[in-house]
Design goal:
This protein has one domain: ABC transporter involved in vitamin B12 uptake, BtuC. The chain is about 75% helix and about 0% strand. The chain has 15 helices and 2 strands. The longest helix is centred in the C-terminal third of the chain and has 27 residues.
């Protein structure tokens, strides 16, 4: 029994178990898939804000880079799905390296504004290359390829199969990000977040580590974009609009940026609320904004801090009572 409880104390295990059961109890498999994809994007963004203390408004460009790269490779070259995802994530990491190398030279609000400016430049550039990106009409003709590995192949056209394919990629990515944040490099990220000057004074090249964090974050954001491309079978300029970066920030803050898993919970909640509120009222963004304000004002640790508090109570060892002599 103790080993089972110790096993269930690992948040990754709980998230994996819930995710496996979720599509069987949740009525909309497609919405569950969307939650995973945006959960991956939010966790990738959290490598920047939650662990390194860098507020970026450019993650829509990285997400869009992954989506457009995947779409173009499928439409023009009919690439293998795994090769396409790897190329999409790599391209987003390269864009993140470029943006990070320039933006890291500034701090605070100036860094955030630089990332926003790069996002807008990227958005405008995509509108000009109509022959490649489709411009304002978007990139069409995208199909969802089967999984091919040597002589074996598996169709993922059916929503449930595609969900578990996305879940597989998501869990691998989450494990990789947990390894990054739990490594000595992850500790340096946190040191930069807490006090960059002190981290610099003990010998760490903070600028180098910030760029590395940006590249890792861009890689997984691009991977999320590639998954969204083959999920929706269409790429729109809205994937790169700065408003998507704002949504990701809301997801991270709502779930809690102090942990690896908080933004995942925030992404699931925001995606679900968008679907529910949009069907109730056409001005649903107003309701979402009010909910966000309430959380920022009264629940600054996000949903995850409440989950951690509840978990500590459930798994707390009972205090031994001293028997009086």
């Amino acid at each position: 029994m103790k080993s089972v409880l110790r096993f269930l104390k690992d948040p990754f295990v709980v998230i994996a178990m819930v995710s496996i059961v979720f599509p069987f109890v949740f009525p909309f498999t497609d919405l569950a898939t969307e939650m995973l994809i945006f959960g991956l994007l939010a966790v990738a963004f959290n490598l920047m804000l939650g662990y390194t203390g860098l507020l970026s408004f450019g993650h829509a460009a990285l997400f869009g880079t992954g989506a457009y790269t995947m779409g173009i490779l499928l439409v023009r070259f009919q690439v293998n799905i795994f090769l396409g995802m790897l190329a999409s994530a790599g391209m987003a990491a390269a864009i993140a390296l470029l943006i990070g190398w320039i933006s890291i030279r500034r701090h605070g609000i100036y860094f955030a504004m630089l990332t926003l400016a790069f996002n807008e430049v990227f958005y405008f550039t995509l509108t000009q290359f109509r022959d490649l990106t489709g411009g304002e009409d978007g990139l069409r003709g995208i199909y969802r390829p089967d999984l091919v590995a040597g002589p074996a192949s598996l169709s993922v056209q059916e929503p449930m199969r595609f969900y578990f394919f996305v879940l597989f990629i998501f869990l691998l990515s989450l494990l990789a990000m947990r390894r990054i944040t739990g490594s000595p490099m992850g500790s340096v990220f946190k040191a930069i977040r807490e006090n960059e000057n002190r981290a610099e004074s003990v010998g760490y090249k903070c600028r180098y580590y910030k760029i590395v964090a940006f590249v890792f974050s861009g890689f997984f954001a691009g991977l999320a974009g590639a998954l969204f491309c083959i999920y929706i079978k269409y790429v729109s300029l809205s994937f790169c609009h700065w408003s998507l970066s704002g949504e990701v920030i809301i997801m991270a803050l709502l779930g809690g940026i102090g942990s690896l898993y908080g933004p995942l919970i925030g992404a699931a909640l925001v995606t679900l609320m968008q679907d529910i509120l949009a069907g109730m009222w056409e001005r649903w963004l107003l309701l979402l904004g009010i909910i966000f304000i309430i959380f920022v004002m009264f629940f600054q640790g996000g949903v995850w801090s409440g989950i951690e508090a509840l978990s500590s109570r459930l798994f707390r060892k009972p205090e031994k009572k001293e028997i009086p002599a």
